[in-house]
Amino acid sequence: MKILILNGPNLNLLGEREPSVYGDVSFDQYFTQLKDKFKSVELNYKQSNHEGELIDALHIASRQVDAVILNAAAYTHTSIAIADAVKAIQIPVIEVHISNVHAREDYRKHSYIAPFAKGIISGFGLQSYELALQSCLYEQK
Ligand code: DQA
């Protein structure tokens, strides 16, 4: 099984950005652990701060992988274009958030992507990605 983890804006700063909300581990560090733990999965990771690049990555992923684990970060709450891309592609997209977006500012409570996502995992720290991954493997059974 091939899975792409796709991270949006500011998630390149994980580990140093608001550690009380997002933790003190960089995504690269976490990704290494994740790859070790899920050896049976062909796991790829991409991050971009640019909306169009995230859309391009979703289009390409739809031809290359079985599922996408997407943390669109702030674009979750603003981007109709990314939501349209998620709707357009044929593979499942799982929406993830490190923080519990429903326990934060009101503007984080709405997701344009959620209606087109396979499911949403939010609030488990970096473990949200692992839970999403497990849901993909569970689906496969
Ligand atoms: C986030 C939550 C978003 O509201 C925020 O803009 C982010 C990260 C999360 O993973 O908790 O950048 O997606």
UniProtKB/TrEMBL annotation:
One Gene Ontology term of the molecular function aspect: 3-dehydroquinate dehydratase activity
Enzyme Commission code: 4.2.1.10
Catalytic activity field: 3-dehydroquinate = 3-dehydroshikimate + H2O
Domain of life: Bacteria
GO BP: any one term: chorismate biosynthetic process
Enzyme class, first EC level, given as a word: lyase
Pathway stated in the Swiss-Prot or TrEMBL entry: Metabolic intermediate biosynthesis; chorismate biosynthesis; chorismate from D-erythrose 4-phosphate and phosphoenolpyruvate: step 3/7
Record keywords, A-Z: Amino-acid biosynthesis, Aromatic amino acid biosynthesis, Lyase
Presence of the UniProt keyword Lipoprotein in the record: no
UniProt binding sites for substrate: N71, H77, D84, I98, S99, R108
Positions annotated as active site in the UniProt record: Y22 (proton acceptor), H97 (proton donor)
Keyword Oxidoreductase: no
Site (Transition state stabilizer): R17
Pfam families: DHquinase_II
Subunit structure of this chain's protein: Homododecamer.
Function summary: Catalyzes a trans-dehydration via an enolate intermediate.
Family: Belongs to the type-II 3-dehydroquinase family.
Name of the protein this chain belongs to: 3-dehydroquinate dehydratase
Designated gene of the protein: aroQ
